[in-house]
Write a structure and sequence with these properties.
By secondary structure, the protein is an alpha+beta fold. It has three domains: 2-96, 3-Layer(aba) Sandwich (Rossmann fold); 117-179, ATP-grasp fold, A domain (Dna Ligase, domain 1); 182-284, ATP-grasp fold, B domain (D-amino Acid Aminotransferase, Chain A, domain 1, 2-Layer Sandwich). Helices cover 33% and strands 27% of the residues. It has a five-stranded antiparallel sheet with strand order 14-13-12-15-16, sandwiched between helices. The longest helix has 15 residues, at 278-292. It starts with a strand and ends in a 9-residue tail after the last helix. It binds adenosine-5'-diphosphate. The site of adenosine-5'-diphosphate has 22 residues, from strand 9, strand 15 and strand 16.
């Protein structure tokens, strides 16, 4: 097969591992920076160009689109879909999962456990919003944040009010969430491929920190999931329409609660913590699904 990996940097761990795994299985791979692509949108022969040249024909594309390039990256991916290239994750599903609020709304519609979450844009609504999520302590999140940046734990109602007011003053979109104290600064990353959770790790925050992101100094260890956690992760990925997803779960008194469904989950943390060859499993999944020809939307989303 000819496989394109959409990635801004070919030296990133995940990009490298996917390239290595695909080549080891006899495929030809090209890493393509979506920002270097430009496109010809037309009915008869949609095409993608890079540095004055038409891109060769690919069988499959693995999108690794960073949050900061979602808009242009998904447009390039859509163009691949229109050209009949099989996407590992479809552009519509990626766009859906990048909107944190929309994702939570879709997940809640499917009765998937979530932390109680509120959203408002007027300072006058803050008191009621705080009541809705059970008051302080609560977690305030910037909708555009990643890697734990813009996630604040407000321990008192006064602190929550001032932080929310400050964010609103800056015209930032935020959500306010109940704080799951019993998670103890840990979360579970479930790595989903197709209809299986193929690996899972528990990330633990540093002492005195509640955010378990590895970028924030958290540490990762292999974890055994409960059947409920496994099925929650699978249902969450399916709801978003993602074939490959990193589903982040908090262990609460009321069972697993989904925080986020990530459409370009990193491979480094999960492969190192579990010893599982995730990249190889992704390539095998593409091989099986390409045979079935199961891309659904073909750029129609
Ligand atoms: P990001 O997408 O920026 O990583 P998250 O929503 O995943 O932001 O939050 C970062 C970390 O903060 C999580 O991995 C988790 O450890 C912690 N966290 C987030 N929301 C809650 C919550 N409602 N209760 C307890 N801990 C939380």
């Amino acid at each position: 097969m000819h496989i394109a990996i959409m990635s801004r940097n070919k030296n990133l761990y995940s990009t490298n591992r996917l390239k290595e795994a695909a080549e080891a299985r006899g495929h030809e791979v090209k890493v393509i920076d979506p920002l270097k692509c430009y496109m010809n949108i037309n009915m008869t022969s949609p095409s993608i160009h890079m540095k004055g040249e038409d891109l060769p024909k690919f069988d499959a594309v693995i999108p690794r689109i960073g949050a900061s390039v979602t808009f242009y990256g998904t447009a390039v991916l859509r163009q691949f879909e229109m050209m009949g290239v099989h996407p590992l994750n479809e552009s519509v599903a990626i766009t859906r999962s990048r909107d944190k609020l929309r994702s939570l709304q879709l997940l809640s519609r499917k009765n998937i456990g979530l932390p109680v979450t509120g959203f408002a844009n007027k300072p006058a609504d803050i008191p009621d919003l705080l009541d809705m999520v059970g008051g302080a302590p609560c977690v305030i999140k910037l909708l555009e944040g990643t890697q734990g940046i813009g996630v604040v734990l407000a321990e008192t109602r006064k602190a929550a009010e001032s932080v929310i007011e400050a964010f609103m003053g800056l015209k930032a979109n935020i959500m306010v969430q109940e704080y799951i104290a019993e998670a103890g600064g840990a979360d579970i990353r479930c790595f989903v491929i197709g209809d299986k959770v193929i690996a899972a790790m528990r990330r633990q925050a540093l002492p005195g920190e509640f955010r378990s992101n590895l970028h924030r100094g958290g540490s990762a260890t292999i974890v055994k999931l409960t059947p409920e956690e496994r099925s929650t992760a699978l249902r969450a990925a399916k709801t978003m329409g993602l074939n490959v997803a990193g589903v982040d779960i908090l262990r609460s008194k009321h069972g697993p609660l989904v925080m986020e469904v990530n459409s370009s989950p990193g491979l480094e943390g999960i492969e190192k913590a579990t010893g599982i060859d995730v990249a190889d499993k992704i390539i095998q999944f593409i091989e099986k699904n390409l045979k079935k020809g199961s891309a659904k939307t073909k750029g129609n989303g």
